[in-house]
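Entry under discussion copied across for reference:
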Amino acid sequence: MSSVASPPQAGGKHQKKQNDKPASLWSDAWYDLRRKPAFVISAILIGVLLLMAIWPTLFSSVDPRACDLSMARQAPSAGHLFGRDNLGCDVYARTIHAARNSIVIGVLTTVLVAVIGGLFGMVAAFYASMTDTVLSRVTEIFFAIPGILGALLIASTFRDQVNSILLVIVSLTVLSWPMTFRIMRAAVITAKNQDFVVAARALGAGPSRLMFRHLLPNALAPVIVVSTINLGVFIAAEAALSFLGVGVQSPDISWGLMISDARDRFLDAPLPLIFPAVFLSITVLAFIMLGDAVRDALDPKLR
C-alpha cells in the first residue's frame, strides 16, 4: 500500500513567520523590548515627560514666574493644583516648566559623554600601542576625581562667567566621559579580532571604514545601555548641583532649584518641595527602568 504524502497545513508558513525572530541584533532587541512591561511603562512615562518639556503650556497655562507674595504658601486649590511656594508662585506651573531644563541638561550631557567617550575609546582600542596608553592614563586621572565634588568645584568657579545651564552640562560631561571610554574600548577590542573585521582589513578597508562601518555598529550596544541609564543619573546630578546652589540659577527653573528654594520652610509648607521631588524621582526611575530593559534586550547572555 503506497503512502500518500499529507498536504502541508494551511497555517504552516504563517506559523513559521510568526515564530521566527528577526536576524539582526537591533530588530531582535526591539522584538523583545515590546514584550517587556518595564519598557512599556518607562517609555510611556518618558513620552509624557518629553511632551511636558517640549510643550509645557499643554499642561499648564499659568506663568511660572508670576508670583504674589500675599499668597505665599497657599494650600492647593482648583486654580493652583499644587498650591503656591514661599514666594507665592504656582508650584504646579513651575514643576511642569522645570521639566524642560532638567531633561535638556540630562539629554545633552548624555549625548556629549557618549560621543566624546565613545570616540576616544574607539580610537584607543583601534590604534592601541602608545595612543591607548596615553588615553588610558588620562582617564585614570579623571577617575580619581570624585564626580559631584569635581562638578561642584567647576560650577562654583565659573558660574559668574558662563550660563548656568551650559555650565552644568560642561561640568558633568568633563567628569563623566571616562566610563563610556572604558566601555567602548573594551567592546572595540573584542570586536576588532572578529573574522568580519579581519576580512574587511584583508580586502583593503581603511581605518575610517573599519572603525565607523564595521567596529562601531558592533560595539555600540553597551554604550547605548549605559547612556540610557546615565541620562537619569545626570538629571539627578543636576538636581544635586542646583540644590547646592551652583547648578541652574534663577530666573531659570529646575526641579533641583525648586527643592532648594523650598527646603527652609519644609515643615511649614512641605508641598512646594514634595511635588518637584516626586517628579524628579519618577523621571530618574523611568530612565533607569528603560536602561535596564534595553540592557536585557541587547545582552544575549541575559535572554
